[in-house]
Amino acid sequence: MSIITDITEVVRPTAKHVVAGGIFALALAAAVGLGLSTRQHISAASIVRDDAVNSIDNANANGGVGAADANELIKDIKDGKPSDLATIYSAFGLSSSKYDDFAKNAKSGVLYRDGHVEVNGVTVMTDTITMGRTNMGKPASERKPVTIGGKTYYQSTPNVSFASGVKSLPVMVLFDSKGVAQTVVMNACGNPVQGKPVTPSAACKVLNATQDKTNPNKYTFTTNATFAGNAKLQKVVYHFSDTNTSVTKNSLTEVVDHTFAKDGKVTVTVYATTPSGAVITSNCEKQITHSAPMAVCTALVASAIDDQKQKFRFTVKTATKNASVENVDFTADGNTTTGVNAKDAQGNIYKEYTWTDGKEHTVKATVHFTTIEGAKTGTCETKVTSKQTPKCTVPGHENEAPDSENCGYCKEGIPKGDSRCNEQVLSATTELPNTGAGNIVGAFTGASILGTVGHVIYSKRRANRAALQA
Hints:
There is one protein chain. Helices cover 16% and strands 40% of the residues. By secondary structure, the protein is of the alpha+beta class. It folds into three domains: 9-197, no CATH class; 201-288, SOR catalytic domain (Immunoglobulin-like, Sandwich), CATH 2.60.40; 294-385, Immunoglobulin-like. Strands 3-4-5-10-9-8 form a six-stranded antiparallel barrel. Strands 14-13-16-17 form a four-stranded antiparallel β-sheet, with no helix packed on it. Strands 21-20-23-24 form a four-stranded antiparallel β-sheet, with no helix packed on it. A hairpin with a 6-residue loop joins strand 11 (201-211) and strand 12 (218-228). The longest helix is centred in the last third of the chain and has 33 residues, at 437-469. The chain starts with 8 loop residues before the first strand and ends with a helix. The relative contact order is 0.08.
């Protein structure tokens, strides 16, 4: 049979007989090739085998020339039919250590006349060449000889090796763990295919983190990533170390919100799939520093607002960060007033109290804060001693003001309002008051002295007159 193609396809025989006739084979190859160009999934029953001498797997064993699937090809290799299969396929990356992997995991694909290979409709290899046992009557410029294990084989592009009118043919493709095509073998003839494998890749470029304007611990995340080769985005997973939680999204632009409870790292993993079914990943990370809120009552300041120091204003002083003061509960002498929010010119909440008892009083302020992490409270307290209001000391008038008309005394020991305060003052005609025995003695003594002095003066005068008459 004189066939000038890598493969000459015929309908799979039921008794492994070979249909001869180059013209029929060429026409059938063209018809089957046109049909295969429209489908990707190849079943064993749809494989048309080639019996040409150019076929690498031409021993017509284990089902026929070539292989309906990966399992059949591995059986042919292990059986050594033909004997050089192991050496040939090893040169194309299919060593004995990969037989089981090929049998289990090789994917069905399509080799196109223009030299590219597709699996599941996605290109996995380009610029391919195929290898057969003959030069097909072509010059060396089209069918290049290669030596493997001491034997000569021939390689050419699919455009040369395909029969006229054949656009595509089924192949088996083994990928590595990263989804890169490693070994490609044509089903119908077992001829190996080499080319430039398409390397899938996914690269996380930037983890975008936008900080919330009102809560510095809240962030919104999106991701920028690139995909090359035949990789396609599968999902994006955000992991937050502060809470050990993860969030999965199906798009790079879908936002993820997270509020950090402490310092933590966010790691985004971009997952991409390949035609082989392999999943490749790429990570981006950001370290986030937690901003702890501050909500503290620093002081409760008491100040007297009257001269008597009986009326006091209690002003709450606070220190806040990522927090705000809502209101204050004031407790004085066991009585509480809740929800106070009156503010002074500086914005501080205050409350005023008045005491007139001259005692010490304790005032406590419970401040209610709203923080980025929820509601919190803080307390402060202080003590003051008021001045007692002056009182009337007159018995029976203690509750009256000291300057009231009833407070005071009209005479020593006699308070105002007492009936004794109304007695008339003694007049001049009234008998002398009884001054007592001591005063009479004093008066008598005084009178006696005056009489004696007068008698002496009178006696001296009479003596002087007598002297003048003599």
